[in-house]
Amino acid sequence: MRNKFTITISDVKGSRHYTIDDILKRIVAIFLIFIVLLFTCGIIYITLLNHEVTQLDSKKDELQNELDDKIAYYEVIKEKIEEIETIIGISHEDENTTHEERLSNITLTTVQQSLLLQFIPNGQVTAHKGISDKFGMRKHPIKLTDDFHNGIDLRVPLQTPIYAPALGIVEYAGYSETSGYGALVIVDHGFGFKSYYGHLDKKMLVRVGQFVKRGDRIASSGNTGLSSGPHLHYEVRFLGRALNPINFMNWDLNNFSQIFEKETNVQWDSLLEVMSILLANKQNQQ
Fold first, then answer.
1. pTM of the entire structure?
2. Is pLDDT at 60 greater than 60 in this prediction?
3. What is the DSSP string of 209-269?
């Protein structure tokens, strides 16, 4: 019989004897179990990662389809504007002319500027006490996730009057269950511009299809939807794209040209060319 090292452990229950071979076998068994568990966890983790990648690919496809739809819609609007420009005689002989150069060639009288400000959202929409949340990326105050804030949040007490910033037609007036806006009013101002007013009081002051002019009261502030306190969520959109509302709230006759420098996502040159001719024709008819 070969010599073996024996380890004896004694306690109140008696003595137990272990050989080095037994201890090594147990260590190997534990190591193998650890390897199997590690391999199993790795397989599960890889499976979860593959599932997440599949979901991200699906979301990417959805976002790409949505982007393609927006681009197609934009192209249609662009074609319509070009058709109007052709009808009213705007020339595009020099296609290399930049938007800035075309803007500098357009001159509007003070009267024409005032008329234009009746159509495009501008100025204050309520008597607020400052901005509680700015436009752009932020951490959502309720969901606590990083997301893009499409508008600005204005501090206002409950039942504060909300006014239309330009001429338009009410596209939506009701309670939005799934969007988080709560009580919501949307005004279509034409020329591709829309304004959104969220977290309003549930009592609607306007109805769908109703025409409103600049300065008309369209709602009262509230605390509905995903709201952490009374405030007005205000958005300005152009062709479905969210723009920084503060640029429009600070726009008036005193800094009429400022909007063209700060908001570059709008083709102001073609819009002003059309508006200047339409407004001139309107003045000539009076």
1. 0.62
2. yes
3. T-EE-TT-EEEEBB--SS-SSSEEEEEEEETTEEE-HHHHHT-SGGGTTHHHHH--SS-HH
